[in-house]
Amino acid sequence: MKRDLIMGNQAIALGAIQAGVNLVSGYPGTPSTEVLETVAKNNPGDIHVEWSVNEKAALEVAAGAAYSGARVMVTMKQVGLNVAADPLMSLNYVGIKGGMVVMVADDPGPISSQTEQDTRHFAKFAKMMVFDPSSPKEAYEMIQDAFEYSEKYGRPVFFRPTTRVCHGYQTIDISEERKINKPEGFIKDTFRWVIFPRTSFMNHQKLEQMMVDLSKDFSSYRFNQVTGTATKKKGIAASGVSFEYVKEIIGDREDIKLFKVATTNAFPEQMALEFLDGLEEVVVYEELDPVVEQELTYICGKNHLTDVTIFGKLTGNNVNAGENTVAKIADSLSEFLGEPELAEKYAVPVADETQPALPVRPPVLCAGCPHRASFYAVKQAMKGKKSVFCGDIGCYTLGNAKPLDMCDTCLCMGADVTITQGIHHIEPDTYNFAFIGDSTFFASGMTGVVNAVYNQAEMTLIVLDNSTTAMTGHQPHPGTGVTMMGDIVNKVSIEKILEAMGVTKIVKADPLKLDEAIEAVKSVVDLPGVKVVIFKSPCAAIVKPTKAFSIDMDKCIGCMECISEIGCPAIVLKDGHAFIEPSQCFGCGTCTYTCPTNVITRRS
């Protein structure tokens, strides 16, 4: 046994390894990314670990392994589940042989996502069981239970940590023992593995019965708990990290009944009835949506518990968006329990008015980021022309910030390529651009390009190739020539894929050679059909910076063009002049193109 302070995502990974996982696949996305990376780092050598091109591919690879009797885990964030939804809905009908855990990290806030969608709703929709850990330590143990339940019922299961569980740290005893799972291999059985309407109908009936059985099973599950008594006739129900916040506030008080819900689907109804017995008022704390609250309200109605009132998000007692915090729950509990001292004890300290306010720090492209130069090149090339710039999910979403202002739309991964086509069909007199990264191109951009070629759209695709998956932590992708486990493989060429799709005009340029980059854009925009410019330059975070630039303060006229044109965080205002902070400058040189007096030079 080894005791260590580890992150929640690391705990999930180590728990899966201990459970005997044979294959782990996924697609990077905060707050889930470190799970797969930790498995790769601690791989005993017999686990297949891969970053798949997207979540759909990851789920289907894992399904094949689970059909063969392997224990598998798929990792993604909540919006990635949307990509994997098609195979997952059918897979739960078909079932699996080995244990299969679909680890979906939800992002209350949201801190780094497009949405605050709650995976527990998807679980109910798909008729899948879901495990909702409240702490890193619990996640370490619960992930092992998830594999056991998956195998017991022959169905994939959701494991749904939220951001603070994923990225929180806790001291955990890590077992050095590991379950050895030896898959028996794929056994042909058409009736089982081939989905037909008739078998789907039969399996649907089995799923409905399974949820009934699971509700009873989960009513004795070790992480679903009822503690305390109904002395005050008041009860608290909590799930996920919200349970830990509640425990921090009330400690081990016995005069309040506390219901910890670790499995929201199937809901432990028998245990819920035990909890509700003797209560008059219940308040519910959970992230994100009122899932537990609705279940308890339903159970009260179903069992005619007319004397019990449920409070929570639906009643306006708790916030219905964003993260929960100790302070928020303490404020709510103080009102619910009639104990104002709770709100006072956990109130957020008021800022010291004698201290200066913290500066506003909006997210920006890094100093030296080649995407800044790419956006600026397109902006310069299209001056005075009616243009729409469709963006995508990744670092380049930050191209929307002023002064670049080069991201007019952003919906989901790959949508830039297709949204720009829709705009073209309605406004054919507009120059329509789609910006996509190299990793995103492989993940979800290729289908849109085929659609554009096939349906004769007029558009210019700008591929921002920085040789990595930057925003989620520099993971490899098919274009890097390296796998997650470090194997050197053939690079998949974006240019050759585009040629095979029927794109007839493809030009490449280094965005840091700005004059050439501008000319590359100008050379294609007036051509018919689908045109592509590949701007290739490595992410500033994965290459060594070159010599920094400096501004001759004596010759600087203070026009601030270098600041107002590109918005590089390395350039600041100092004594009425622009100043380049040498510790921030990566030496990309984009700023030199903006200076009308040519006083920006590389340091000697």
Written overview of the protein:
This protein has 4 domains: 2-217, Thiamin diphosphate (ThDP)-binding fold, Pyr/PP domains (Rossmann fold, 3-Layer(aba) Sandwich); 225-345, Rossmann fold (3-Layer(aba) Sandwich); 370-542, 3-Layer(aba) Sandwich (Rossmann fold); 549-602, 2-Layer Sandwich (Alpha-Beta Plaits). The longest helix is centred in the middle third of the chain and has 22 residues, at 197-218. α6 links the parallel β6 and β7. Helices cover 36% and strands 17% of the residues. It has 604 residues and is α/β, with parallel strands linked by helices.
How are the SSEs placed, and which strands pair?
Blueprint: E1 2-7, H1 8-18, E2 23-26, H2 34-41, E3 48-51, H3 55-67, E4 72-77, H4 78-94, E5 100-105, H5 119-126, E6 130-131, H6 136-153, E7 157-159, H7 163-167, E8 169-174, H8 190-193, H9 197-218, E9 225-227, E10 234-239, H10 241-250, E11 257-261, H11 269-276, E12 281-285, H12 291-302, E13 309-311, H13 326-337, H14 340-345, H15 370-381, E14 387-390, H16 415-426, E15 431-437, H17 438-454, E16 459-465, H18 494-501, E17 505-509, H19 514-522, E18 530-536, E19 549-551, H20 561-566, E20 571-574, E21 577-580, E22 600-602
Parallel strand pairs: 2-3, 2-4, 4-5, 5-7, 6-7, 10-11, 10-12, 12-13, 14-15, 15-16, 16-18, 17-18
Antiparallel strand pairs: 1-8, 9-11, 19-22, 20-21
Helix pairs in contact: 1-2, 1-6, 3-4, 4-9, 15-19, 16-17, 17-18
